[in-house]
C-alpha cells in the first residue's frame, strides 16, 4: 500500500529548515535546545505552498518536531483508501488566537539568560518565525508564580485607593517584556485578572490563601481598582484588551486552597460585573475593554456562565466566557456547544492550561510526548465544540518548574536552564504550535467528515488567506492511511503515523 501510494502521488520532497538541536532525556524523550546564538525556527509555511502541492507538518513521539514534507495534490480519486471530506462552505466559530501567560516567574526566568537568548525565547512565541502567539495573559498582581504575596494596595483599609501603585514586579518582570512583544505583534491581545484583591477587601476565614470572599462594601472599590490598573498599564504604553473579575473564583470556597484567591459564586460574579465592573469601566474610558465571565473549570459550565448571561444587565457587558482546563477529563466538551447555542454572540476561550506533577514525580517532565498528545487531543475536542482560542499558563519556567513561593511547581512549554544559558522546547510547545502557527486569528472552523471507523482525532479551519489547516492526531500504536478530499475534488493521501500530531496545509480552491 505504501509503495503504491508513493508511485501514484509522488513525494515532492523534504523541506529544509533550521532544525531542532536535540537533547535526549531517555528513549523517545527529546527537547529542542536553543541559546543566544541558535534556535530552530520555521520557514513561513505559506511561502512553501505552491499550486498543486500540499504540506504535512509532523511532530512525533520518536522525535520529529514540526517537520514539513511537501506532496502533490492529486486530481484523480485513489482506487482505495479511507476518504475524509473537507467542506469549506459551512463555517463554525471564528478563532480569536493563541497565547501564554506573563507571570512574575516567567519574567524572572527571562532575566536569567542573556538578552539575545531572551529575545530568541520570546521570538519563538511572537516573532515572525515563531509559533504565531497573539494573546498574553498578564496577572493583576501576584500569583503562585511570584516570589511573595502582594496586591497593588497592601496594608490597612484604603477605601480611596490612595496607596494604589504597580509593583516592582510589573516594572522588572512584565512591562519591559510586554513592550518588546508589542514590537513583534503590535496588536497583541493582553488579558488581565487578579488572583486576589487587596486583603482588606476580602473576608478571610483562614489566611489569604483559602476560604475567602469579597466583602459586600468593597464591590465598587474593587471596580475602581481595575480602572487604576488599566490606567497604570496604559501610562506604561500597554493597553489591556480584556479582563475577567477573578482567577478561579471557585477556589475561594476551598477552606485551605493554598493559593492567592477570592471566592465568588456565579451569582456574586454576576452582581460584580453588572453593578460595578461593567458600568465603571464604561464610565472611566475603558468601555472597549473585553469582559469575560467564568475563569473557572469545565465542570462548572454551562451553568456558571449562564447564571451571568441570563441577567440582561450583566449580558450587556460580557463578551465571552474564560475557561481553565484542569478538570477537563471529568466532563464532556459538548457543554460548550450547549453554551454556544444558548448565547451565540458570546465567545468561549480557554485562558489557562498546564500540567500538574504526577504523584512522586518532578513537575517538569523533560521530553514527555504523552503530555503533547493529551494537550492536543483536548484542544481538538474543544475546538470542535465552539471554543475560539487557547491561552497556556507560564510561558517559561526553570528546570524545577518554578520559581513559585507556594511550591506549586508545574511543567511549561519552555524550560530555561540558566546554568547552561540555554532553554528547552518541550513536546507541549509543539502541541500548541501545531495549532497556533497554522490557525491565525480570523480563521473559521469548517466541516470535516472523517471516514467511519477512524481512530484519529481531527479538526479543520479555513484561514483568512484561503488556506486550509487540518489538524490530525494519532494516539495509537498503528499508522493510519487516509485520503483528504476537498470540496473541489482534490485528493491528498497521507499516512498519519502512530503517535504523531500533524497539520496538513493546502490552498482552498
Ligand atoms: C549554542 O548552540 C549552538 C547549536 O547547538 C552551538 O553550536 C553553540 O556552541 C551554542 N553556544 C553556546 C555559547 O553554548
Ligand atoms: C480603547 O480605546 C482607546 C481610546 O480610543 C485606545 O487607546 C485603546 O487602544 C482601545 N483599547 C482596546 C483594547 O481596543
Ligand atoms: C487553614 O489553612 C491552613 C493552611 O492552608 C490549613 O492547614 C488548615 O487546615 C486550615 N484551617 C482550617 C480550620 O480549615
Ligand atoms: C464587547 O461587548 C460590548 C457590548 O456588547 C461591545 O460594545 C464591544 O464591542 C465588545 N467588544 C469586543 C472586543 O468584542
Ligand atoms: C508523561 O506525562 C504523563 C502525563 O502527565 C505521565 O502520566 C507520564 O508518567 C509521564 N511520562 C514520564 C516518562 O514521565
Ligand atoms: C542544565 O545545564 C547544566 C550545565 O550544562 C547541566 O549540568 C544540567 O544537566 C542541565 N539541566 C538539565 C535539566 O538539562
UniProtKB/TrEMBL annotation:
Molecular function GO labels: glucosylceramidase activity
One GO process term, biological-process aspect: glucosylceramide catabolic process
Glycosyl hydrolase family 30 TIM-barrel domain: residues covered: 97-439
GO cellular component: membrane
Coiled coil location: none
Top-rank taxon: Eukaryota
Alphabetized UniProt keyword annotations: Glycosidase, Hydrolase, Lipid metabolism, Signal, Sphingolipid metabolism
UniProt catalytic activity: a beta-D-glucosyl-(1<->1')-N-acylsphing-4-enine + H2O = an N-acylsphing-4-enine + D-glucose
InterPro entries: GH, GH30_C, Glyco_hydro_30, Glyco_hydro_30_TIM-barrel
Signal sequence interval, chain numbering: 1-17
Span of domain Glycosyl hydrolase family 30 beta sandwich: 442-504
Enzyme Commission number: 3.2.1.45
Name of the protein in question: Glucosylceramidase
Native source species: Diploptera punctata (Pacific beetle cockroach)
